[in-house]
Amino acid sequence: FLAGMLLRVLVLVLAAALAGRPPSARVRHVLVHDKKQADSVLAEAKAGANFESLARRVSKCKTTAPKGGDLGRIRPQDVVPDLAAAVFDGDTDKEIVGPVTSPFGYHVLKISDRKPAIADKEL
After folding, report:
1. Contacts by 75-78 with C-beta closer than 8 Å and gap 24+?
2. pTM across the whole model
């Protein structure tokens, strides 16, 4: 009886934690200040260049460049709308996306480990 009760409590706690969970994805980026350079970065990335090395070498983002462009796991509300749209509203089969314009410049994105949203009713 006690084991069953603990299991039900665990399921309820897990359901509450996941309720309404937005989509998320692991994202790396290269930030540059002009479109021509962004197009060049995009071409290199699509040709198979190591994205982390590319970010370290080219990105103007002082925070993420040393970490290979790693933004970590993001949700739509974590980033500016244009980046959120590129990651979550676009072709979800694409791994390399860009250039995406933001107030910071032009981004080329590497997207992996996408997780869909979980609505309350799916739990």
Report:
1. 75/22, 75/23, 75/24, 76/22, 76/23, 77/22
2. 0.78
- With contact defined as beta carbons under 8 Å apart, do 60 and 108 qualify? no
> Order of strands, edge to edge, in the sheet holding 24-32?
70-74, 24-32, 105-115, 96-102
72: which DSSP letter?
Answer: E
pLDDT in tens, 40-82: 999 999 999 999 999 999 999 999 999 999 999 999 999 999 9
CA dihedral 47→48→53→55, nearest 10 degrees, is 50
**pLDDT for residue 114 is more than 70:** yes
| SS3 assignment, position 81 | helix
Burial of 104: CB neighbours in 10 Å, binned 0-12, 13-18, 19+? middle
* Phi-psi category of residue 118: left, alpha or beta, with phi > 0 → left and psi -120 to 50 → alpha: beta
| SS3 state at 42 | helix
Nearest to 110 by CA among 36, 32, 50: 50
Token reading at 58? 């080219």
